[in-house]
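Quick start: read one record
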Amino acid sequence: MFGPRGAMLGSGGVSDGYEVGSKRQRMMESNPYFAVSSGMSGYQPYSYGGGFQPPPFPVVRLRGLPFNCTDIDIFKFFAGLDIVDVLLVNKNGRFSGEAFVLFAGSMQVDFALQRDRQNMGRRYVEVFRCKRQDYYHAVAAEVNYEGIYDNDFHGSPPSRGKRYNDKDQMEYTEILKMRGLPFSVKKPEIVEFFGDFKIMEDRIHIACRPDGKATGEAYVEFASVEEAKRAMSKDKMTIGSRYVELFPSTPDEARRAESRSRQ
C-alpha cells in the first residue's frame, strides 16, 4: 500500500508498528537509529554501551528518474527488496528526477546498488549511497514545503531555502556540467543543443570511465560567465529521449573529469 507523497507503507499502512510517510518526521527525533523491521535484516538501535558500530543507514539515492515516475515505478525497479519508504524529491513544486529509498537493512542496500544504471523506461537510473542526513534534510524540506506538521514535530523545521540552494544562487564560471546524457551522445549533438549560445566547441569534454564507457556527463565551456548563465535556460530539456540536467561547474572539476577519462 502506498501513502501520500510517495511513501510506501507496509501491509496495513505500518512497518512493524511504525508509520511512515506522513509520520516521517518522527525519524528525525533525537535517536537517529530506529528499528524498521523485526526480522534478522532489520535495522537495530545503536547501543552506546555495547561497544559496536551500527551498520550504515540503509538508504540510497536515485538520480535520472523519468519525470512521470511514481513510487510504484520505484517499487517495481527494486522488485524483491524490502522497501520501507520512498521519497520523491520535488523542487519548487516540480519533480526533480531524484528520490530517496529507505530499505529494511544494509544488506538490502547492497542488492539495490547492483541495479545502478539499469533502465526505468528509456532512462538509465543512477543508484548510489548517501548519508542519513541527506535523507533527513529531504524529509525536512518536504515537510516544510508542504506545511505538514503535527504534535510529533517540535519547533520550526529547517528552512527549505537554506537546505537547497537554487541553481541561480550558485557561483558561476564559464563552464556548465551536463548530466543525464545518452551514453551515445557526440559533440555535434551538444553543439546543437546549445545552438542559441556561444560555446567553445573545442572545449567540450564528454566524460568517460577508465574503461572508455561514457558516464552520461559532459563539461561545456562558454564564451563568458554570462553566456553560461543564459544557457541554464536549457536545464531539463532533452537530447533524444533523455532530459538533461545542467549545473554550474569549474575548470578544476572539468580537468579532473578529463584526467579520469584518460586513466
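Residues 1-47, 146-165 have pLDDT under 50 and may be disordered.
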